[in-house]
Amino acid sequence: MAKNRKLNDFLGKYPSGYLIFQTFEKYRQSHVIKHHGFLGIENKDPDYDFYIQSKLFASRSLKEFIFRHLILPLFLGKTFDFISYLIRNRLGDFKDKEIKYLILFWIAIFGICFYVNVLDILLMYWFVPLLTSFPMVGHFIEMAEHFPIIKNKREIEKSWNRFGNKIELFFTGLHKENYHLIRHLFANIPFWNLDKAHNILCKNEEYRLLNSNMGGIFSSSNKASSL
Q1: For this UniProt entry, which segments traverse the membrane (predicted)?
Q2: Number of H helices and number of E strands within the chain?
């Protein structure tokens, strides 16, 4: 998130990860090392294991898939599964040193909110969305990043860039998250350079052809099919 390593470490914890109960080191281990390093390998890639546990590949018909994975999540049907996945792969173990900082951070937040008498606002406008809309949006983002192509053999064919309309990207494309294929091909590129990287990669015929067939989750801004 920043060029300065100490600032990046701070931003990745206190004003972001800790607010949604995700530790920096656990995210690095589960996402950067395991997911990026072992993409699509069962029992090594936590995201792929989540696909399997969510039965994304188990639907016997298109109708069943639409109901189970597109309609049910809108009514919080995937909330428990998604939160369980985050607790296992993003929160960390209580033996981890960083958990102590996260707990102290939230004790401070609760203390301040109690002191200024806004605990009800914290609960209604942070924890309720955290347990409802956040898992719902997260489910669709996770699914749209690699499904169903994660089983492909070549790295360039395992991830999607997403080109939804402006409303969809407002909710699901923050910090250029819609450039997911680039993030897997070149994980060290900071988000502020992803537009530039995308334009350079479009000079490659294979990337350009794959990219032209990628729409968004529910909408498309480039006339390609959405998920």
Answers
A1: 65-87, 99-118, 124-144
A2: 14, 0
Residues 6 or more apart whose CB falls under 8 angstroms from that of 99 comprise 23, 91, 92, 93
- 124 with 210, same domain: the answer is no
Q: Note whether 193 and 142 are same-domain residues.
A: no
- The CA–CA distances, whole Å, from 24 to 10, 30, 43 equal 9, 10, 22
pLDDT at 174 over 80: no
Residue type, 200: I
Same domain, 125 and 171: no
Residues 99 and 123 in one domain: yes
**Contact (Cβ atoms closer than 8 angstroms) between residue 175 and residue 189:** no
Q: In whole numbers, what is the pLDDT of the chain averaged over residues?
A: 92
State how far Cα 194 lies from the chain centre: 17
Residue finishing a domain among 151, 171, 205: 151
Name the nearest CA neighbour of 160 among 142, 136, 137, 175. Answer: 142
Q: Whole domain around residue 33: which residue ranges?
A: 1-151
Q: What does the angle CA 186 – CA 188 – CA 193 come to, to the nearest 5 degrees?
A: 85
